[in-house]
Design goal:
The complex is a heterodimer of chains A (about 110) and B (about 110).
Chain A (H helix, E strand, L loop, with lengths): L3 E4 L2 E4 L4 E8 L5 E7 L6 E7 L2 E5 L6 E7 L2 E7 L7 E8 L9 E2 L3 E5 L1
Parallel strand pairs in A: 2-11
Antiparallel strand pairs in A: 1-3, 3-8, 4-5, 4-9, 5-6, 7-8, 9-10, 9-11
Chain B lengths: L3 E3 L4 E4 L4 E7 L6 E7 L5 E7 L4 E3 L2 E6 L4 E6 L8 E8 L5 E3 L3 E6 L1
Parallel strand pairs in B: 2-11
Antiparallel strand pairs in B: 1-3, 3-8, 4-5, 4-9, 6-7, 7-8, 9-10, 9-11
Classes of the chains: A mainly beta (about 110), B mainly beta (about 110).
Amino acid sequence: DTEVTQTPKHLVMGMTNKKSLKCEQHMGHRAMYWYKQKAKKPPELMFVYSYEKLSINESVPSRFSPECPNSSLLNLHLHALQPEDSALYLCASSQDSYSSYEQYFGPGTRLTVT
Amino acid sequence: RKEVEQDPGPFNVPEGATVAFNCTYSNSASQSFFWYRQDCRKEPKLLMSVYSSGNEDGRFTAQLNRASQYISLLIRDSKLSDSATYLCVISGSARQLTFGSGTQLTVLP
């Protein structure tokens, strides 16, 4: 079973709402990632945190705001989203982001923006 | 040319069949190679890493050909539970993962 957990499993929000997605890993990994996945497409990288610092932002709109409170936790704050932002949001972790270590994914949050 | 290319399928095979997937990549500096499987509406799960010497895990065999820049996955004695989308994933010089578009496999009874 996955050792990366995500909450909530499902989220429906209006375009004016503010919500947060949460991710936690218990493997001692020092790199954590946010991905967005649309139906029948592969995951697209959004953000990379390495040793609790944001190291990569793949030109993600500012309505998505990541936060890494500590090495085990990763949040994604959502504000003023658009319907096209509806997708599966996946969190992943790896030993670190400088080596070619495997990434392990959480079960995802299925987000619907109305 | 896409960085990572896979045949999207679908591959429909009977139980017990052997099926092979290939994946080509364009960046010769790619460092690491993986196969993930993803069930419908679930997260990708690491199936196996792919090494230059090839590796086998039960019914699954993965191989890497750096000269021709492709990796392969062979599934022997297919089970119904093997039905999933198989993602070829490459780690480049920037250490980030690049995903292929996935190959859909359905194993039929």
